[in-house]
Design goal:
Order of helices and strands: HHHHHHHHHH
Distance between the termini: 65 Å
Structural class: mainly alpha
Number of strands: 0
Helix content: over 70%
Number of helices: 10
């Protein structure tokens, strides 16, 4: 019992946020309404709608807090290895709890079609565990969460599709423009910035951490490119052809 009580700081917080997201998912499953378009849909599509709704909630809070963290503690922009703030720590802990929830959610309901995202969650959670339990790299972790700014519009697009919003509507098109702009700025440019920072400051971290971060960023970049190409084929290229 005393061993459990002596767990590193962040352990109970991660568990707490994991429970919060599981409860939210359970409430949506048992009491949340679904769009009329899903009235006769498959169980997988109904699960996906609820999964994306929970993801949207996480993205919304993470997007706001990740931007706020750099205004709250500007030192994190220049020192992503040792700079720290309580808000940044809570954000990383919250996101770790969410990614663990989402990992098990996909593992149970959609493992075969979510292998790339399952791998993504393993890499992200491993990186966040290193940051939380070593009390370092918190700013680097928060920087990676800037990508959630784009996820807000990415999940909004999926939810609008579920609700039958026309792709010709102003709302959908404005969201599409913001999706494209934030994808470039908060995914591609952020990934490039983080990779460059790690390479330039590789002498400041253990080689194992440097290797893990470079491999992790390479995987993240590959997943971002894959997602961007899917979006381009689905929306932007189709509209350009028309």
């Amino acid at each position: 019992m005393f061993g459990i009580l002596s767990l590193p700081r962040g352990s109970f917080e991660i568990l707490g946020f994991f429970v919060v997201f599981r409860v939210l998912h359970s409430l949506l499953t048992n009491y949340g309404p679904i769009p009329s378009s899903l009235a006769t849909a498959s169980a997988r599509n109904i699960w996906m709608y609820r999964n994306i709704t929970v993801s949207f909630v996480h993205s919304f809070f993470s997007a706001f807090l990740s931007v706020y963290c750099f205004f709250d503690e500007p030192a994190m922009l220049s020192d992503m290895f040792t700079a720290w703030s309580d808000t940044a720590f809570v954000l990383v802990v919250m996101s770790t709890g969410y990614f663990i929830h989402d990992f098990f959610d996909m593992l149970i309901y959609d493992a075969r079609k979510s292998l790339d995202l399952l791998l993504h969650h393993i890499v992200v959670c491993s990186a966040f565990f290193i940051a939380i339990f070593n009390k370092a790299y918190i700013a680097f972790a928060v920087c990676s969460l800037l990508m959630e700014v784009n996820s807000v519009f990415l999940h909004s697009r999926r939810l609008m599709c579920f609700h039958g919003v026309s792709k010709k509507s102003l709302l959908y098109q404005v969201n599409g423009i913001m999706l494209l702009l934030t994808f470039i700025n908060f995914r591609f440019l952020t990934s490039a910035w983080m990779t460059n920072y790690v390479i330039q400051h590789r002498s400041m971290v253990p080689f194992s951490h440097f290797l893990f971060s470079t491999v992790g960023m390479a995987l993240m970049t590959g997943l971002n490119i894959q997602t961007f190409m899917s979006l381009w084929q689905a929306d932007f290229k189709r509209e350009q052809t028309k």
